[in-house]
Amino acid sequence: MARITYSIVPHDGGWAYKAADAFSEPFPSREMALAAAKAVAAEQQVGGDDEDISFQDEKGNWHFEHTDGGDRPEATVEDG
To answer: What is the pTM of this model?
Structure first.
């Protein structure tokens, strides 16, 4: 199972949550960023419908896959 960790960090004069190298919008307080990260982590774990998807890789090759809507990552929030 994939895992996503959201970290609360200072960002752009405020606070943000960060996953890998991607930052959220800045929030005025650490508490607001933490609440937003918890909401996003909870939503990340909600399953959806199965879908057939297609995508093009960096070499220009097309791939077609069936995705399981219930295959959701484990999402956690680190504050500190």
So the answer is: 0.69
